[in-house]
Amino acid sequence: MKAIKKFFRFDNIGYIFVLPAFLYMMFFVGYPIFSNLMLSLRDVNMRNIKTGIQPFVGFENYVVLFTRDSVLTDALINTLIFTVASIVFQFIIGFGLALILNKTFTLAKPIRGILMVPWMIPITVTALMFKFIFGTDVGILNYILNALGLISENIDWLTNPFTAKIALIITNIWIGIPFNMILIATGLTTIPKEMYESAAIDGANKLQTFKNITLPLLKPTIESVLILGFIYTFKVYDLVWVMTSGGPVNSTHMLSTYSYKLSFEMFKYSEGASVANVLFVILLFVSLIYLKVVYKEERT
User: Fold this and answer.
1) Residue 138 CB contacts under 8 Å (≥ 6 apart), including other chains
2) What is the pLDDT of residue 5?
3) More confident residue, 64 or 49
4) Which residues, listed in sequence order, are joined to residue 207 by a DSSP beta bridge?
5) pLDDT band at residue 10 using 50, 70 and 90 as cut-offs
6) Contact yes or no for 103/187 (Cβ under 8 A)
7) Treating both helix axes as pointing N-terminal to C-terminal, what angle do 161-189 and 108-115 enclose, rounded to 10 degrees?
8) What is the rounded CA–CA span in Å between residue 63 and residue 294?
9) Phi and psi at residue 210, in whole multiples of 5°?
């Protein structure tokens, strides 16, 4: 009884409020992660999932995937290329739009609202829309290029390995621009206008002001945008699955889509779980970097 009273003291009240969220995370997040890890250490497939005889194989699934399965390596490379290319262009375009829309002019707010539409549309809808745009025979893009005389025959955008990757990257760039724009625009509002006025009085031009005031003061925002963008983009699934399903010939598989294919199309549940764990470890590492950056910024 004394132990219970001691736990409910005023200085422990914070733990009591955190407890429900902790239990929720342990049940809905912690248990699935642990279960997936244990699944990857066994040999579970369509033949033995009903019998319950699922031998423990340790890290054999990981060894097989990394040494004998070239698709996993391709999926990892595709995911990295897709993520980096998307983030670079999303950030550059979003940064430029944020700088423009941070100015005071008549249509600034309506344009900012319109530019948020790609972020608000469900990704599945966006994927279907761009799948139609990049279609071979009835695609809007081929129709426009033909009308302008830039091509003589239709381009197989989504059935060619190289152009399919380009199409996916372009689609994801279109989706992610508003995210970058709104966060950077929010960061710009935290910079005191007096600093720009002082710089103008001292004779600094726009380039010097941008280099010595805007960029340094936006550093925390830029770091957050890039790291969060990496996390959101690296785990892409629905966009790729709707547009290409990992094809043609597994050339556009990402880690997430390949994990799905192994688990629910090839019924190699343990190997699918192993790929998912590879994705989890990479994102965990990036998330720890993000937390370290945030903690460092808070201390300074």
Assistant:
1) 132
2) 62
3) 64
4) none
5) low
6) no
7) 140
8) 35
9) -65, -40
pLDDT in tens, 146-166: 989 888 888 899 999 999 999
Q: Give the separation between CA 114 and CA 61, rounded to whole angstroms.
A: 47
- Return the residue matching tokens 């190699």: 268
Extents of the domains making up the chain: 68-299
Q: What is the pTM of this model?
A: 0.89
SS (H, E, C) the chain: CHHHHHHCCHHHHHHHHHHHHHHHHHHHHHHHHHHHHHHHCECCECCCCCCCCCCECCCHHHHHHHHHCHHHHHHHHHHHHHHHHHHHHHHHHHHHHHHHHCCCCCCHHHHHHHHCHHHHCCHHHHHHHHHHHCCCCCCHHHHHHHHCCCCCCCCCCCCCHHHHHHHHHHHHHHHHHHHHHHHHHHHHHCCCHHHHHHHHHCCCCHHHHHHHHHHHHCHHHHHHHHHHHHHHHHCCCHHHHHHCCCCCCCCCCCHHHHHHHHHHCCCEHHHHHHHHHHHHHHHHHHHHHHHHHHHHHHHC
pLDDT digits (tens, 9 = 90+) for 254-280: 999 999 999 999 899 999 999 999 999
Q: Are 43 and 274 in contact (CB under 8 A)?
A: no
Tokens 């790609």: give the residue. 118
CA distance 104 to 91: 22
Topology at the third CATH level for domain 68-299 = MetI-like fold (1.10.3720)
What does each C-alpha distance from 36 to 4, 50, 76, 235, 278 come to in angstroms? 36, 18, 19, 17, 11
The answer to whether the CB of 247 falls within 8 A of the CB of 131 is no
Both structure tokens of 251: 């050339």
Q: Which amino acid is at 19?
A: L
- In angstroms, the CA 187 to CA 164 distance is 35
